[in-house]
Amino acid sequence: TDVISLFINTQGGSCYDGFALIDIIGISRLPVSTVGLGTVASMGVLILSAGSPGKRIVTRNTEIMAHQFAGATEGKFHEIMAATAAHIYLENQFVEHFKRHTKMNEATIRDVMFNKSDRWLSPTECKKYGIVDEIVDELPDFSAPIKKTSTRKRK
User: Fold this and answer.
1) Quick one: 123 exposed, middle or buried, by C-beta within 10 A (0-12, 13-18, 19+)?
2) Span between the terminal Cα atoms of the chain, in Å
3) How many distinct helices (H) and strands (E) make up the chain?
4) Catalytic residues
5) pTM for this one?
6) Which of 61, 3, 1 is CA-nearest to residue 36?
7) What is the C-alpha to C-alpha distance for residues 135 and 26, in angstroms, rounded to an integer?
8) Which of 65, 68, 36 minimizes the C-alpha distance to 50?
9) What is the rounded CA–CA span in Å between residue 46 and residue 103?
10) How many Å apart are CA 51 and CA 45, to the nearest integer?
11) How far apart are CA 29 and CA 3, in angstroms?
12) How many Å apart are CA 67 and CA 118, to the nearest integer?
C-alpha cells in the first residue's frame, strides 16, 4: 500500500494555510502518515493530528506546544466586529478539528489546547489525548497496513 509520509517540524504558522494542508490530507486517496519530530508547535499540532488513523506518530524527544491562536486587528468599529466574528469562527474550527481527530471532548480541548499560556505536551500526553497514535524510537515501515486503532471519521 502506498502511503504519503509528512514529516512535521515547525513552529507553526498561518491557521488558514494549515487548514488548507489539513484539507489536502483529508481528501487524499492515499493514507497520510504524519510524523512529528523536533518541535511541533501551534498549527503544526493540528496538522500532526490530521494524519490517517494508526499512522500519526511522534518521536520520543519531540517537543509539542499548543496555545491559543493569535491575531490583531485595527480599523473602524464594524471592521473590528467582523474580525472578532472571524476569530470566533476560527476558534470553532479548531475545536471541531480536535473533536474529530483526537480523543478529547470540548472541555478538555479548551483546557489543554487553548490554555491561557503556551502548553507544552509530552509525547505521552499527546498519545493519551489522541493527538498521535504511537511514540517511536525509530521510524516504522510506512507501507504497512493501517491499524484500526481509531474511530475517527473521514469526510
Assistant:
1) buried
2) 21
3) 5, 6
4) 42, 67
5) 0.86
6) 61
7) 22
8) 36
9) 13
10) 11
11) 10
12) 5
DSSP-assigned letters across all residues of 11-68: ----HHHHHHHHHHHHH-SS-EEEEEEEEEETHHHHHHHTSPTT-EEEETT-EEEE--
Q: Are 39 and 10 in contact (CB under 8 A)?
A: yes
Q: Phi and psi at residue 134, in whole multiples of 5°?
A: -150, 145
Per-residue pLDDT of the chain (155 residues; tens, 9 = 90+): 689 999 999 999 999 999 999 999 999 999 999 999 999 999 999 999 999 999 999 999 999 999 987 777 788 999 999 988 998 999 999 999 999 999 999 999 999 998 888 999 999 999 999 999 999 998 777 666 655 544 444 44
Beta bridge partners of 35: 7, 57
